[in-house]
Amino acid sequence: MKSRQEKSAASASATIRIDPGELEAQCEAQERELELTFQQKRQAVLEFLAFGTPLFDPNPGLDAAIRKEDPLELKIDKLRRRADKYESLIQLLKNAKDNEVRLVILAIWLKHEGICGPREFLPPAVYRRALQIARQARLEADVSFTDLLHSRRVRAWLPYFEQLLSEVRELKSAPRARQKLEGLGYKRETIELVLGVRKRSAVSACCEWLECQGKGQARTIENAYSRYRTAAQSVTNTVPSAL
């Protein structure tokens, strides 16, 4: 779920104009929140990739608890479902290549049965290896965590530069454009960045700004954002919305 700050900042790309000073504060707050929580969110994504898929396809009707008021036929079907899952679990454990894989299988089963989380159950070394394998197998082929971090920084600042570029286009070659923009409340550094190199893209402007803030090279950041956009649909379908 998006924070109130993120929703407010995102609205800058719409037709409603936000005071530049307020918009800058929102973008800065969103970037600070990203810096503070990224590692925690990264851990949540890795755990989802490693343990988020249940061993057995869910069947809400038959997986529900057996109730006294259930018809006899439904009770029997629920018991058969439990027996089938038990036999499948035993077979998975028998076919596992080693005890570490067996532990991971049990961790997934315990998680989806609502008994305990993988981190509570697994030895620390096994837990870390499971996360590493999940990352290599299911995430880095699309986009790395470094790409995600760069991309989220760009997204944090996009509303500011989208609005600034919109104001620049309205002023076009008007005299004293820099002074007028500064009078509206935009930072002098961002005005010079946009006007000085004639940036046509808010993304490019964001990347140049982030380089000025010591967040990496603009080209590297922009390439990461491009990879993120290309992979966005598959990543969205693969990982939770924490990132």
Describe the SSE topology.
Layout: H1 4-10, H2 20-51, H3 60-63, H4 72-95, H5 99-112, H6 118-121, H7 124-138, H8 145-171, H9 177-184, H10 188-197, H11 202-212, H12 218-238
Helix pairs in contact: 1-2, 2-7, 2-8, 4-5, 8-10, 8-11, 8-12, 11-12
What does this structure look like?
The structure is a single chain. This protein has helices spanning 4-10, 20-51, 60-63, 72-95, 99-112, 118-121, 124-138, 145-171, 177-184, 188-197, 202-212, 218-238. Helices cover 73% and strands 0% of the residues. With 243 residues, it is mainly α. The chain has two domains: 4-45 and 142-238, no CATH class; 52-138, no CATH class.
How many structural domains? 2
- Summarize the biggest pleated sheet: none
Strand content: under 5%
Order of helices and strands: HHHHHHHHHHHH
Q: Provide the low-confidence segments as ranges.
A: 1-14, 234-243
Number of helices: 12
The global form is elongated
Strand count: 0
Helix proportion: over 70%
Provide the gyration radius in Å: 25 Å
